[in-house]
């Protein structure tokens, strides 16, 4: 029923070589809206062969021409933002404004990639020895794959493909099977922008496709974003197959609230980090750490913030918080709240049992605020990935640092304070990849790089920005001498020392 989403191979819709499908659901209604074709190994192999051939030609296209295509793509993305936001809201559930926000953030990386001429400039040194020059150049890897999560169906793929393509690679995208449609629109727009067929392709499916891409000899590198267990699996599988891998995993981001902070401001910011997009962001803020006297006023302020949020479908005007992605995701939030309560925690704001009138079949759960929870309880230590904020209380700054650093995750963190001294110590001592000072969701802009530490990233490279260019290219160092025809250069058997 509804629409059918197929793969995008060699510049056209392609049903693939397998009859296997799965339903595409609307999280706000709980109803089926479409059907997704799932690829098998044969379809993966076919797409990779197309990509290998396309990449050989694409790598020879001038930088000027590549850049012009990216500029056209940017314009088309802007013109089609409403269309893409609508399908994201239908399949993911997030609000239209949030969907447009992720498209705009994704475009930052495309905009960065339009300046690839700057990033591909190598170094040059004249006369490293007399009459000998040295220079460097960066070349594409070949065909690279991107495997992406449900929570940002536009932005996260955009962290990858504009840079991969600008640097001369072909890109095979395997988006989340939960919200697949945006990727097919992007494929169509790339074609309209003038990108040769086969340089950007989309394969749909789950583990079968992921494993086939990680093991295919035609794939040189794999970029992954998703949960930690799958990041570890992809990192291990693709590394064992000799590929370059960057695998970004899950998170459990803490915001530290110091007693000197503007508590109302901090509570508003933490609420947006905890409950925006129903907490389904890798840079969400599921934990607030109140220091000393900040605790009581923060609890009062965050309770007020949570209680005023309007929960509803993402395409309804006035909705602050949308549904979560699946009935399972909703059950997980309810179960982890139940378990915290059974362990003696205080449920300050309770999102369980919330029903949105007219949307009884939707995956709705309200904002939830929990405190008085032990530091080893799974509702605090694990990633809930829903609209749940756990407030932990510590006595001083050192205890806050120790608590944040005890998490196995190290994606993002924030501190709310008026003190430059504590802010500076925080950024120095915290073992986390992305840090906000009075900023709750410190997602780096497209021309910086995005990546966490510890169980939030496996591999050497962060995503997009300069590290993205490094990931999708290999460097050569060239040493050159042009002796004249009649010049005599003495040869020596000893190692050259210039
Ligand atoms: P997920 O790990 O379930 O899925 C991610 C991708 O892996 C999807 O394309 C999916 O099809 C594929 N996949 C799922 N199971 C697989 C398996 N057994 N074998 C091989 N491939 C498999 O993640 P999700 O639920 O789509 O997204 C939410 C998670 O992603 C959260 O943990 C969130 O923190 C994380 N995330 C992290 C970042 C980051 O930058 N670190 C960004 C966004 C999301």
Automatic annotation (TrEMBL):
Keywords: NAD, Oxidoreductase. The lineage of its organism: Bacteria, Bacillati, Actinomycetota, Actinomycetes, Micrococcales. Residues 18-478 form the Aldehyde dehydrogenase domain. GO terms for biological process: L-valine catabolic process; thymine catabolic process. The gene is mmsA. This is methylmalonate-semialdehyde dehydrogenase (CoA acylating). Its EC number is 1.2.1.27. The keyword NAD applies. One of its GO terms (molecular function) is methylmalonate-semialdehyde dehydrogenase (acylating, NAD) activity. SUPFAM superfamilies: ALDH-like. The keyword Transport does not apply.
């Amino acid at each position: 029923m509804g629409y059918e989403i197929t793969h995008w191979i060699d510049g056209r819709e392609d049903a693939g070589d397998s009859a296997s499908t799965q339903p595409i659901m609307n999280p706000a209604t709980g109803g089926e809206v479409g059907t997704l074709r799932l690829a098998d190994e044969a379809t993966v192999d076919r797409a990779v062969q197309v990509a290998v051939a396309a990449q050989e030609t694409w790598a020879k296209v001038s930088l000027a021409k590549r850049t012009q295509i990216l500029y056209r793509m940017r314009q088309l993305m802007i013109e089609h933002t409403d269309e893409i936001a609508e399908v994201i809201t239908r399949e993911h559930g997030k609000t239209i404004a949030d969907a447009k926000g992720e498209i705009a953030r994704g475009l930052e990386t495309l905009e960065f990639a339009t300046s690839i001429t700057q990033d591909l400039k190598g170094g040059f040194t004249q006369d490293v020895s007399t009459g000998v020059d040295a220079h460097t150049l960066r070349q594409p890897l070949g065909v690279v794959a991107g495997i992406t999560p449900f929570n940002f169906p536009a932005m996260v793929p955009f962290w990858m493909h504009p840079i991969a393509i600008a640097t001369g690679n072909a890109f095979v995208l395997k988006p989340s099977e939960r919200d697949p449609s945006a990727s097919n629109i992007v494929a169509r727009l790339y074609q309209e922008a003038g990108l040769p067929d086969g340089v950007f392709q989309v394969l749909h499916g789950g583990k079968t496709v992921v494993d086939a891409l990680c093991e295919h000899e035609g794939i040189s590198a794999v970029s992954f974003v998703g949960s930690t267990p799958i990041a570890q699996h992809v990192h291990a599988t693709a590394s064992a197959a000799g590929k370059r891998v960057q695998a970004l995993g899950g998170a459990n981001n803490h915001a530290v609230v110091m007693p000197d902070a503007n508590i109302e401001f901090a509570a508003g910011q933490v609420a947006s980090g905890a409950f925006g997009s129903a907490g389904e962001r890798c840079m969400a803020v599921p934990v607030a750490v109140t220091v000393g006297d900040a605790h009581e006023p923060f609890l009062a302020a965050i309770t007020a913030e949570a209680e005023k949020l309007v929960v509803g479908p993402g395409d309804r005007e006035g909705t602050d918080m949308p549904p979560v992605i699946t009935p399972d995701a909703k059950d997980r939030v309810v179960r982890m709240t139940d378990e915290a309560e059974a362990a003696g925690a205080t449920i300050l704001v309770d999102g369980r049992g919330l029903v949105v009138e007219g949307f009884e079949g939707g995956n709705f759960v309200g904002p939830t605020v929990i405190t008085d929870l032990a530091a080893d309880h799974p509702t605090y230590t694990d990633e809930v990935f829903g609209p749940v904020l756990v407030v932990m209380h510590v006595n001083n700054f050192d205890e806050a640092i120790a608590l944040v650093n005890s998490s196995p995750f190290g994606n993002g963190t924030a501190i709310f304070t008026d003190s430059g001294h504590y802010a500076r110590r925080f950024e120095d001592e915290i073992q986390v990849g992305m840090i906000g000072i009075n900023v709750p969701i410190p997602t780096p802009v497209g021309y910086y790089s995005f990546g966490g530490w510890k169980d939030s990233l496996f591999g050497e490279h962060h995503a997009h920005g300069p590290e993205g260019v490094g990931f999708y290219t290999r460097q050569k160092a060239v040493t050159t001498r042009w002796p004249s025809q009649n010049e005599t250069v003495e040869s020596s058997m000893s190692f050259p020392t210039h």
